[in-house]
Each structure stands twice: as structure tokens, then as C-alpha cells.
Specification:
8 helices; 0% strand
């Protein structure tokens, strides 16, 4: 139990560092570009920030496929078919906005592809894998599912730079207490939902696709 809690604390520290670095990059780009709240530049800024951080994390930790929940060979045929089918559906929904609503396309690429890949590999991939490696814990599957969902909810409170620079100007009378509480509760529930396939299959693919679909319809 003690080792498990230490691993949670280390992962929480990593999340804090990542959010500080990400916020620094976004704030620097905002000062350089001065995008309007509804500007597509925000999507490109996110791509730069998440891309730089994601590449840096991979180079630093060099995680094995198993640590990220990327095992493919042991998946049954029906599971592979589900991943492929839902993956094609998700990609089709995102690409369709290029023709139907071109102004939403950059944001959809970021929200439904870039951010889910980053967050799922970080939470249901790396973070979940580190908890599994922390030793035997009796309720391990349930514990990983719940802990990662809680951290996922807290993680979204770390997007304060986005809320202040992008959301606040468009909503000057917003109740910040209610907004942050609802943000935490909503993302905690989403974390529970997308964590289910990771828990039941041991793979991150289902979580990634579910996260992408939620973001597609949540925009």
C-alpha cells in the first residue's frame, strides 16, 4: 500500500510539472500571437505544446509498449474489429468537419486526435502502467481505474491558463467556483468511462477511441 501511494504521488508530481511546462508554452505563444478567444490559432498552439511535451516525455522515459497498454497481439479478433471500426468512424467524423464546417476542423483535430492521444497515453497508458508495476494491491484493477480517473479530473483543473486566456474573456460573469467544480466532476466521470476498456482489456486503444468520440460530440 505504501509503495502504491508513493507511485501515485510521483505521478501527481509529474502531472504538475507537465501542466506548468504546457501553460508556459501556451502563455508564451499567446503573448506572441494574441489570438482571439474563437481563433483557430488556439488549436495550433495546443498542437505545438502537446507535441513538444509528448516527444520530450517519450525520449526521457522511453516507455515499452506494454507500459503504455499497447499490447495488440493478445487481443481477440472481435476486439480488434471493434477498435478498427470505431477508429475509422471517429476519424471519419473528424475529417467530415473539413467539408461541412471548415472553421471547426483545426479545433476538432486537436480535441479529437491530438489531446486524446496525449492524455490517454499519459493516464490510461503510462500512469496506469506505473501503478501496475508498484506491486500487488488487492483491488488493483478497481484501484487503478478509480485513482487514474480522480487524477484525470484534477489534471483538468490545471488548464487554468486556457480558462483565463480563452474562456474568461468570452464569459466575464462566470461563476468560477461552479465552473471548476463542474469541470472536475465532468472529467472525473469521463475518466471512469474511458478507463473501463483499459481495466477490462488491459489495453489503451478502447480508452483512446472513447475519449476521441466524447470530444467529437462534446465540442
Amino acid at each position: 500500500m505504501k509503495t502504491y501511494l508513493k507511485q501515485i504521488a510521483r505521478f501527481l508530481l509529474l502531472l504538475l510539472v507537465i501542466q506548468i511546462v504546457r501553460a508556459s508554452i501556451i502563455t508564451g505563444l499567446w503573448r506572441l500571437l494574441h489570438p482571439a478567444p474563437d481563433s483557430p490559432l488556439w488549436a495550433y498552439m495546443d498542437v505545438i505544446a502537446f507535441g513538444l511535451i509528448g516527444i520530450s516525455l517519450v525520449l526521457w522515459f522511453r516507455p515499452a509498449r506494454e507500459q503504455l497498454g499497447l499490447d495488440w497481439k493478445s487481443a481477440p479478433l472481435w476486439e480488434l474489429a471493434a477498435y478498427i471500426g470505431l477508429g475509422i468512424l471517429t476519424l471519419g467524423l473528424v475529417l467530415s468537419t473539413y467539408f461541412l464546417q471548415p472553421d471547426l476542423f483545426p479545433g476538432n483535430i486537436t480535441a479529437a486526435i491530438v489531446i486524446p492521444i496525449f492524455e490517454e497515453f499519459l493516464f490510461r497508458g503510462w500512469g496506469w502502467g506505473r501503478l501496475e508495476e508498484s506491486g500487488s494491491f488487492q483491488a488493483s484493477g478497481f484501484a487503478h481505474w478509480l485513482v487514474i480517473a480522480l487524477l484525470f479530473g484534477l489534471w483538468h483543473l490545471g488548464y487554468m491558463d486556457i480558462y483565463l486566456l480563452k474562456v474568461a474573456p468570452a464569459n466575464p460573469s462566470m461563476d468560477w467556483g461552479i465552473f471548476l467544480l463542474m469541470k472536475f466532476l465532468t472529467t472525473f466521470v469521463i475518466g471512469l468511462i474511458v478507463g473501463l476498456p483499459r481495466w477490462r482489456t488491459g489495453r489503451v486503444y478502447g480508452a483512446l477511441i472513447l475519449h476521441s468520440l466524447i470530444n467529437v460530440f462534446g465540442r
